[in-house]
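queue> pop job 88
queue> type: inverse folding (structure -> sequence)
queue> payload:
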């Protein structure tokens, strides 16, 4: 048995990462300090977007997006069943109704044709928005989704948690980075340890819409504002005396019901440090994907595989294999910890209680029967990857 565990994903923390965290811990600010803004600015530049708002985690990012877009009781929002539950749950947090639509079996992404059929089957105004997911790191064609959304008056939240650095090519042959705000109203990212950029926990929202940006900043911190031009109470009230010329330095107002979804400065410092290696990490992920794709090309035990795709950020490398359970257990016995992404969200007990059932999303359900995510992270060594490959081939006798 292989003695060293090989997980499906893992963080890479360097001495430089550790030092920036130590430096921040020894500084004047552990939270609400300069490192958060620094991280936001660097991330916005990396993605190619005007505004970035750092938050506690990807789920908080999704929740704030639905709040900023005023999702309310009964609003219907479309998303994919092949995603982490938070992509759907954020709608429920606001009292909205999640409507799942099936995937394209070739890309594993939300199928735009099925979404169009869903929209055309109901009167305009039935649905409020779409949450497409850049699953595994493969970029959704958001130009096409934007055209569809505009036709039906919908907003778009791009769940790009798997895809910092990913991109698609638009109809003008221009590279469009995931999360760049050119087509989606808002986009979100995650900095969980297995993601491209690790902060322990953390998330980011990106947008080109200044009004949404300002709303997000307010919602992130209890709904509180600290700007003179935004205050609604009088200067006299704020100062506690008549004839006040200005608002006092201590003054602030809670103007809406927000949350404490802030990220800390030491997490942000770690994120900025990690961001410096983001491109190198992408190059390595794509190398690993290419090696897997060549090793498994044409093998009879596969129903499908995530081959090398231009613009793919490769958070995950997914095989659709026969006897998935047997392969999973065999790899585990050899200290290789593959994973399944994902159990179809509509078949989670919570969503079954809303009426969703087996057979509703046949393509997603069929994908789930065979999908297995193999080890995929920049520090995976060539020997480790070859071991994974050789064991899979051995299991299937090829």
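queue> result:
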């Amino acid at each position: 048995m292989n003695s060293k565990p090989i997980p499906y994903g893992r963080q890479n923390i360097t001495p430089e990462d550790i030092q920036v965290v130590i430096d921040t811990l020894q500084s004047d600010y552990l939270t609400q300090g300069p490192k958060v803004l620094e991280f936001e600015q660097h991330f916005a530049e990396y993605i190619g977007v005007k505004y970035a708002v750092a938050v506690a985690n990807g789920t908080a990012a999704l929740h704030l997006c639905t709040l900023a877009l005023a999702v309310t009781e009964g609003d219907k929002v479309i998303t994919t069943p092949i995603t982490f539950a938070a992509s759907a749950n954020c709608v429920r947090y606001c009292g909205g109704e999640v409507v799942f639509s099936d995937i394209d079996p070739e890309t594993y992404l939300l199928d735009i044709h099925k979404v169009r059929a869903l929209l055309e089957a109901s009167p305009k105004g039935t649905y409020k928005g779409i949450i497409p997911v850049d699953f595994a790191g493969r970029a959704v064609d958001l130009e096409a989704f934007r055209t569809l959304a505009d036709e039906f008056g919908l907003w778009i939240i791009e769940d790009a948690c798997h895809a910092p650095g990913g991109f698609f090519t638009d109809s003008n042959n221009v590279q469009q980075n995931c999360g760049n705000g050119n087509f989606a109203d808002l986009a979100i990212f995650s900095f969980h340890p297995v993601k491209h950029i690790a902060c322990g926990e953390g998330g980011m929202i990106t947008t080109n819409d200044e009004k949404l940006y300002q709303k997000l900043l307010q919602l992130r911190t209890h709904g509180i504002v600290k700007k003179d031009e935004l205050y609604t109470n009088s200067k006299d009230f704020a100062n506690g005396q008549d004839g006040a010329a200005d608002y006092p330095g201590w003054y602030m107002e809670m103007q809406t019901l927000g949350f404490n979804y802030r990220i800390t400065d030491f997490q942000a410092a770690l994120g900025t440090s990690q961001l410096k290696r983001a491109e190198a990490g992408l190059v390595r992920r794509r190398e690993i994907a290419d090696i897997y794709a060549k090793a498994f090309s044409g093998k009879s035990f596969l129903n499908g595989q995530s081959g090398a795709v231009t613009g793919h950020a490769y958070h995950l490398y997914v095989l659709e294999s026969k006897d998935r359970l047997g392969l999973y257990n065999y790899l585990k016995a050899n200290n290789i910890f593959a994973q399944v992404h994902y159990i179809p969200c509509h078949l989670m007990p919570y969503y079954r209680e809303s009426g969703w059932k087996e057979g509703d999303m046949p393509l997603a359900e069929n994908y789930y029967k065979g999908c297995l995510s193999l080890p995929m992270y920049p520090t995976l060594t060539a020997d480790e990857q070859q071991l994974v490959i050789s064991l899979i081939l051995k299991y299937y006798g090829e």
